[in-house]
Amino acid sequence: MPVRVALIVGSLRKGSYSRAIGLAMKAIAAPGLEIEPVQIDDLPLYDPDLETDTPPPAWTRFRDEISATEAVLFVTPEYNRSIPGALKNALDVGSRPYGQSVWSGKPAAIVSVSPGALGGFGANHHLRQPLVFLHMPTMQQPEAYIGNVASLLDENGQLKKDDTRQFLNSFTDAFAAWIEKTKG
Ligand code: FNR
Fold first, then answer.
1. What pLDDT is stored for residue 117 in this prediction?
2. Buried-state track 13-33, b at ≥16 Cβ within 10 A, e below 16
């Protein structure tokens, strides 16, 4: 049975480099990993007052989709040396109601992406902080800071270089091993 992995992309824009990298990883991953994108752009901002018997339908859809997966792959840009607000909102929505977090115990991996040289280092490490609290065992090595991303993708968002393909392939292999090691 393949392991179902949620792909959460921190960018909302159509032409997102991060989404292109995430989808490339989905295509490259060994058959043992079934990586499926989970939408976050329709999630109303987290507001505890909306946490009634009928929460926003998008929250319920999101929580159900994450619950149905065994692991989470985050691919995110960096916004102002941290994570985009949309990604933080998704983490918050999934973390509640109190005691019913959909994140708890799910292995995670982080890929940060930037057109700049630093590869989203700040976002990568800021994301690790909430994942500690959310009890998501997060892969430590290999790390993935994808810098100068525009030079790695063609106009259709496809990977241009074999070494990028090999790196992302080895990253997904390591994640598969990490999931196996940490689950249960
Ligand atoms: C950025 N960008 C950016 N890049 C970076 O490397 N470090 C940063 O701190 C920031 N800060 C930042 C803030 C805001 C509000 C925006 C909109 C952008 C640039 C960012 O990396 C670039 O727009 C990427 O293309 C965003 O990723 P996607 O949307 O292509 O996945």
1. 97
2. eeebbbbbbbbbbbebbeeeb
Q: What is the pLDDT of residue 184?
A: 63
CB burial readout 35-68, b (16+ within 10 A) else e:
bebbebeebeebeeeeeeeebbeebeebbebbee
Which residues of the chain are under the pLDDT cut of 50?
Answer: none
Q: Where are the domains of the chain?
A: 3-183
pLDDT at 148: 98
CATH dotted code for 3-183 = 3.40.50.360
Q: How far is the CA of 95 from the centre of ligand 1 (A)?
A: 25
Which atom in ligand 1 lies closest to the alpha carbon of residue 118? Answer: 6
